Amino acid sequence: MSGIMIDRRLAIGGLLGLVALKGAAASEAIPAEVTAAIREKVGAAEASEGGITLKVPETAENGAFVPVTVTVHSAMRGDDRCTAIHLFATRNPTPGVASYQLGAGLARAEVSARIRLAEGQVLLAYARMADGSVRRAAARVAVSTGGCLT
Amino acid sequence: MSTPRIRMPASARAGEPVEIRTLIDHPMETGLRQQNGQTVPRKMIVRFEALADGELLFAADLRNGTSANPYLAFIARFEKATALTFVWREEDGREYRATQRISVS
Known about the structure:
- By secondary structure, chain A is of the alpha+beta class.
- Chain A has helices at residues 2-18, 32-42, and strands at residues 47-49, 52-55, 59-62, 66-72, 82-89, 96-102, 106-115, 121-129, 134-145.
- Chain A has two helices and nine strands, in the order ααβββββββββ.
- The relative contact order of chain A is 0.23.
- Chain B is an all-beta fold.
- Classes of the chains: A alpha+beta, B mainly beta.
- The interface between A and B is medium-sized, with 32 and 34 residues.
- Chain B: InterPro entries: Ig-like_fold (IPR013783), Ig_E-set (IPR014756), SoxZ_dom (IPR014880).
């Protein structure tokens, strides 16, 4: 039991820490509760970079309304299908922002939403594919006015 | 209050990508906010579902990080005329619904 737990932690460690975040996001330490929230949604599968785009403004004037678009490169047919997208905010009071479930009737694995960001931070997007693989993208967002408590 | 709004074309060609944009007027109160020294009571939509002829097309589990007046857009394809149902569910089970039809040629 404990062995499994350790393996899982190692896998998540690899998922979050060792696989470097791109650019400015690279130096960001990810808090334990964020890791736990990701583990809960994504499981222990190791996430690969690439094949997923997280589009978000570099600077959000108003943290209460931050437009986000996640695009997963997937034909959405047969085995090449994205089944779920999860969004996490590393420095929000609640790290899990939203989880999206993608049905077989979607033409593209693309979701747009507006989210709240309490302060400048790294946003993480995870995509689960029909074959069980997981993809990840990270983006740093600067926030002029925090959006959670106002 | 809490009026759902759907934007999508009334017709499409079979298999063509169709963008569906949804928005509902809703405060998405997290229960963390203070106003005049009082905590504003929590009031959140936690689940959104889009059904195509009763089958799940797209769903979202929303948590605190979703903006007020939640906006969600996704891209579907239809092979035949389809009846769409959109449901927004609050934590206490209260639901808001909208329906839309798309004809397919």
